[in-house]
Write a structure and sequence with these properties.
The radius of gyration is 32 Å and the shape is rod-shaped. Strand 1 and strand 2 form a beta hairpin. The protein has seven helices and five strands. The protein is α/β, with parallel strands linked by helices. The strands form two sheets. Strands 4-3-5 form a three-stranded parallel beta sheet. It has a two-stranded antiparallel sheet with strand order 1-2. The longest helix has about 30 residues. Helix 1 crosses helix 2 and helix 1 packs across helix 4.
């Protein structure tokens, strides 16, 4: 059963004629007639009486009318919910990061972001290096904070240079200046 045909049926019933409904909906009267014939063929029941003075429901159509109205309302509710979900999905940024980055860097970075974009939600996922690359590849996250590596073919933007230092106990036997 086609939801569009049900909507047109309900609009046609409100006007009482194919001519008026066609005019308001932007169809030809013959196009609407054909659509209603197709609906009746789909369900296997004649639901409209056609006459010189317009259209009205058959007894079977009267019984089905509340169900058609419920169907149209449910279809509209689904459309509204889908629109809502689509707009919300666009307002969520999913970030993958190492635990240290999520704990030490992201809070200060995101606090400034939230001030400029209060309607955007951030979802943070804490993962290891390989898992971060895989999550980005599978589009489970929109961006990652990670070390660049050969396994990941995405563009990296360097945010900081990490200098590694070895801390050794006093008197540690080594002949080298650097390790």
């Amino acid at each position: 059963m086609d939801a569009k045909k049900i909507q047109i049926l309900l609009s046609t019933l409100k006007t009482g004629s194919f001519l008026k409904a066609a005019d308001s909906l932007g169809y030809t009267p013959s196009g609407l007639t054909h659509m209603m014939d197709s609906l009746e063929k789909d369900i296997g029941i004649t639901i409209l009486k056609r006459g010189r003075f317009g259209i009205c429901l058959t007894p079977e159509g009267e019984k089905l009318l509340p169900l058609f109205e419920d169907f149209a309302a449910a279809e509209q509710k689904i459309r509204n919910e889908v629109r809502s979900l689509q707009s919300r999905r666009q307002e969520i940024i999913r970030i993958g990061a190492y635990a240290s980055v999520a704990r030490n860097w992201l809070p200060s970075l995101l606090s400034g972001f939230y001030l400029e974009h209060p309607k955007v939600s951030i979802e943070t996922v804490v993962l290891g290096r390989e898992e971060l690359y895989n999550a980005l590849k599978k589009r489970e996250v929109d961006m990652i904070f990670a070390c660049s590596g050969t396994e990941c073919k995405h563009e990296f933007v360097s945010l900081a240079k990490d200098y590694y230092r070895a801390v050794l106990p006093l008197g540690y036997p080594t002949a080298q200046e650097t390790i």
